[in-house]
Amino acid sequence: MIIGISDESHSHSLRKGTSEAPDRIRKISRTRDVYVENNKESLAYTNSGKAQSKIFDLGNISRENIPLVYERITYDGKVPITIGGDHSLTASIIQGLGNKRGPISLVYFDAHPDFLSSTRNFYGSVVYDCLPYIDPKSSVMIGIRSPELEEIENIQKYGITVFSPADIQYYGFKQVIEDILSKIGKNIYVSFDMDCIDPAFAPGVSVPVPMGLNPITASILLKSITQDGILGMDMMEVCPKFDIQDNTSHLASRMICELLSSVKVKPKLPNF
């Protein structure tokens, strides 16, 4: 289930415009990834050789409606795929899911740890704001390459495992995948900030950082981590105003399609 949240009210970035991302990603996906044959529409095939046709788009919701919407989705056994918006939205989503599923293994794709604790409730404190609902020991950060000292201290304090782009290049993604899968638990939530991708491939983000992941590596990691099922995923921080020929929006759409072609759905929760 696709959900858009057109909100960037908790962003401090000098680049504005992530609130435009949900509608832009949908538009570019429909323009570039939908084919019409015999008057029937279908999505493009993915790298797995599978097409993804059973997708329901709920449309856009407000930040305030996150708890109600995600509680209902969780009980219905659906996998919410959220398009933001600034990254602070993830904390509200995690809170809603964590209250129903128990401690979550957070897989956090980002150039930044977003682990500040001196300032709260904004796009730079996401992971710290999520701490009551996640299991830090079974959570991982991927693509990190621009941490602040306070964030490094919090990573060490809470024991979250970090894989930088240099780690993945040096050890190889097969070894990194094995390490990640041995670390994470069963209740997996994936948060994907598009700035984890190198700006050569994804220039349209709010805080670009050089020397990031390439799209193929990120896609393989994403699919390997999610193949046995996830609670949900979000795609954050696409900034269309700073994109080049909508390449970042298109890449975000393709990353979502790659995931949907292989992910399993968690079982529906019983009613009490």
Name the CATH architecture: 3-Layer(aba) Sandwich
Mean pLDDT: 90
Q: What is the radius of gyration computed over CA atoms, rounded to a whole number of angstroms? A: 17 Å
The CATH superfamily is known as: Ureohydrolase domain
Approximate shape? globular
- The CATH topology label is Arginase, Chain A
Largest sheet, in brief, is: 8 strands, parallel
Q: Could you give a quick summary of the protein structure above?
A:
The chain has 9 helices and 10 strands.
Architecture blueprint of SSEs:
Blueprint (H helix, E strand, L loop, with lengths): L1 E4 L15 H13 E4 L2 E4 L13 E4 L5 H10 L5 E4 L4 H13 L3 E5 L16 H5 L9 E3 L6 H10 L2 E3 L1 H7 L1 H11 L4 E6 L21 H12 L5 E5 L10 H14 L12
Parallel strand pairs: 1-4, 1-5, 5-10, 6-7, 6-9, 7-8, 9-10
Antiparallel strand pairs: 2-3
Question: If you had to describe this structure to a student in words, what would you say it looks like?
Answer:
It is a single chain. This protein is α/β, with parallel strands linked by helices and 272 residues long. The protein has one domain: Ureohydrolase domain (Arginase, Chain A, 3-Layer(aba) Sandwich). 35% of the residues lie in helices and 15% in strands. It contains nine helices and ten strands. The strands form two sheets. An eight-stranded parallel beta sheet has the order 4-1-5-10-9-6-7-8, with helices on both faces. The protein has a two-stranded antiparallel ribbon with strand order 2-3. The longest helix has 14 residues. The mean pLDDT is 90.
